[in-house]
Amino acid sequence: MNQDELKRYARHIALPEVGIAGQEKLGASRILLIGAGGLGSPMALYLAAVGVGTIGLIDYDIVDSSNLQRQILYDESSVGKSKAEEARSRLQKLNSNITVNIHEERLSRLNAMEIFSNYDIVADGSDNFPTRYLANDACVLLGIPYIFGSILRFSGQVSVFGMSDGPCYRCLYPHPPSPESVPSCNEDGVLGVLPGVIGTLMATEAIKLVMEIGESLARRLLSYDALAMRFREFYIRKDPDCPICGEHPSIRELIDYDEFCNGRKDEVVSEDISVEEYSILRNTQEHLLLDVREMYEYQIANLGGLLIPLSELPNRLKEIPKDKNIILLCKEGVRSRRGLEILRKNGYSHLRNLAGGINAWTERIDRTLTSY
Questions:
Q1: Which of 22, 202, 227, 362 lies at a 20 to 30 A Cα distance from 1?
Q2: pLDDT averaged over the chain?
Q3: What pTM did the predictor assign?
Q4: Same domain assignment for residues 255 and 287
Q5: Number of domains in the chain
């Protein structure tokens, strides 16, 4: 290490558990981050600051103004630009001595093994189950640690999978939940500072793994509740029957994760109606458009209709006639599907769900509406 590096990392080197040897391990390490969003932002910034030699970023999205509430890699000048490019620029300004590799592509079973094989650790900041199962399986097959993090509303989770004799993500979640039951930050929201808490914990685990110090979260799931300001810990056992890390694994190569988590990705749910179909139907067929979003969302963009937030729906059924065709609408089609199930259980029969919600309408039918 040269004099500039000794000065830059002096507070690290002063730690007996780190020293020059530990700092050099960081400089030689290669860590891949899946997603350069809420969790990826604090992870990337801290890993760059501490001198991780090579940081990889997988993200093919662009910066939206709604990201700025929590994705601290970006500022207002980043809106409309490539997340990966903006992230690389920011990280290299923070530390010009590191290498930042960007992968502007959708992670899939076709490229995961090739990308992952160039790194020592994978830290997953994604927000969907297909990517999590894919990342877990690729890491198990390659024998590299998988750091998991998730956030929603006011809570988050962190763990480390794929360690020697430790459990993997499938040991904790053997089966993915049904797509219609899965909440998301887009639909249910997330406290702006929450990704900072969870992302920093994930970065901490990565740093400890590189330097081989402390006790990792392998075999433990750390849960954080911001409203109660409380951490809880849960023990995770390795499942001997796990299909990928168990005693007799049946998964020996990556599978189709869209099919595994969502059913056939090209399957159309019979109750769904596309935005293209609805653009014709709304002017030709009598119906009731039922919007189950919140009032503030309706004020941002709406297609008219009756607004009843999903949380109020069970108590406001009298406002909804049973003799009409009903099209349910939300932001992305998740809450409206839950609303459809509520109505069906209460005797409603002529129901359709607007697939993709108002986001799909704004993107494919009417770009004059505000996206959020």
A1: 202
A2: 92
A3: 0.77
A4: no
A5: 2
